[in-house]
Amino acid sequence: MQRVADSLKTHRVSTDHVDDVVLGDVRFSPVKSAWFTGMAVAAVVGGALTFTWAAFLVFVVCTGAVLLLGHSLGSHRKLIHDSYQCPKWLEYVLVYCGVQVGLAGPLGLLRQHDLRDYAQRLTVCHDYLRHGSAFWKDAWWQLHCDLRLVRPPALALEPRIAEDRFYRFLERTWMLQQLPPALLLYACGGWAFVFWGTCARVTAGVFGHWLIGYFAHNHGDMHYEVRGAAVQGRNIRLTSLLTMGESWHNNHHAYPGSARLGLHPGEWDPGWWLLVALHRLGLVWNLRLPQDLPARPELVALDDAAKPVARPCRWCDVRASGTVIPSVARDLLKMACGASKDPSLRSG
After folding, report:
1. Closest by alpha carbon to 80, among 118, 47, 130?
2. DSSP state of 151
3. Residue 123 and residue 7 in contact, taking contact as beta carbons nearer than 8 Å
4. pLDDT, tens digit (0-9, with 9 covering 90-100), for 105-142
5. Which of 273, 256, 289 is nearest to 76 (CA)?
6. By the 8 A CB rule, do 168 and 107 touch?
7. Which of 204, 81, 256 is nearest to 95 (CA)?
8. How far apart (Å, rounded) are the C-alpha atoms in residues 105 and 270?
9. DSSP run (H or E) holding 26
10. pTM for the complete prediction?
11. Parallel, antiparallel, or unpaired for β 224-226 and 299-301?
């Protein structure tokens, strides 16, 4: 029997036998494989035949938008971790954008995330859940297969999620939700916009999610260690902008409920910058930061960078320069530099 850390006792996932998250087989998933393969083939073949720079720009803009608004802010920081509060209409918009990434429905994505998170914090974890196999084997598993556990653990979702009609609707129709933007793109730019704005976007989102996940659990820097955990998150500095801050995965393993992922100076986190801007507009509040989370005895700092201190920055120090900077711009600069200690970010 594995030992369960105290921080897991309030986790959504629970089981009487924690070894149940290890006992299982990886099996081919025809629907999952057909979804990714179909999108990838359409993106490569259709994209090559219809390429224009305008279509490529649509791909860049659409992909960036769904990753920032949808995956980072909507699916991950809000729906899964509830690390900030916002009006319900805004939550729905952000989560809908998250569905556009093409990974799964909102409830399915939450289940996948929480099972993986629970298993990785145990002392032993199935290779599928820890990205523990060889590179190409893990790619095949994650993109074309599912893990079938002998005794799947229980998952208790909060009523705000489980009983939400909109989320249940999106869960039933998440693949079909690619049609509305595809029709709009076709009306604006024909098949080129569809292949690049839908098929290539979904392919990049699904493949990129696996690729970052693989490296974020196998290669990269660490500020923290979660003692007793089978898997340690890793920070991938070079992809911080491409992933909207999600590649600061070691930080996230240390403080999973934090709305801010780039915790230290120089750790760029576009998702956090946008949350700060939305906070200034009064659209989000109660942003949780590491200091707002319960203490974890199993969390150990590995370097001095893991102990944040306020560092003066010539771009942020308005008083020293005498320059008047609009408040939103000043806060964004502070977020980029890692020097902000603004307590109002946590106020309602």
Report:
1. 118
2. S
3. no
4. 999 999 999 999 999 999 899 999 999 999 999 999 99
5. 256
6. yes
7. 81
8. 24
9. strand 24-28
10. 0.88
11. antiparallel
CA 111, 212, 6, 157: dihedral to nearest 10 degrees? Answer: -20
Angle at Cα 151 formed by Cα 150 and Cα 153, nearest 5°?
140
Q: Which two tokens stand for residue 256?
A: 């999973």
Assign 149 to helix, strand or coil. Answer: strand
Q: What backbone phi and psi angles, to 5 degrees, belong to 27?
A: -125, 145
Report the C-alpha gap between 194 and 224 in whole angstroms: 43
Are 120 and 16 contacting, i.e. CB atoms less than 8 angstroms apart?
no
281-287: which pairs have CB atoms within 8 A and are 24 or more residues apart? 283/86, 283/87, 283/90, 284/84, 284/85, 284/86, 284/90, 285/84, 285/85, 285/86, 285/347, 285/348, 286/84, 286/85, 286/346, 286/347, 286/348, 287/83, 287/84, 287/259, 287/260, 287/345, 287/346
Report the pLDDT value the prediction gives residue 342, as an integer from 0 to 100: 55
Per the DSSP assignment, residues forming a β-bridge with 226 are 299
Residues 6+ apart with CB under 8 A from 209: 71, 101, 103
pLDDT digits (tens, 9 = 90+) for 4-13: 777 787 899 9
Give the 3-state secondary structure of 213-281. Answer: HHHHCCCCECCEEECCCCCCCCECHHHCCCCCCCCEHHHHHHCCCCCCCCCCCCCCCHHHHHHHHHHHC
Helix (H) or strand (E) holding 171: helix 165-173
Token pair recorded at residue 58 = 């649509």
28, with CB counted inside 10 A (0-12, 13-18, 19+), is exposed
Distance from CA of residue 216 to its chain's centroid? 12
Question: For residue 208, is pLDDT > 90?
Answer: yes
C-alpha distances out from residue 348 to 114, 277, 289, Å: 28, 15, 14
CA–CA–CA angle 76, 77, 81 (5° rounding):
90
The number of residues making up the chain comes to: 348
Q: What is the CA radius of gyration of the chain?
A: 21
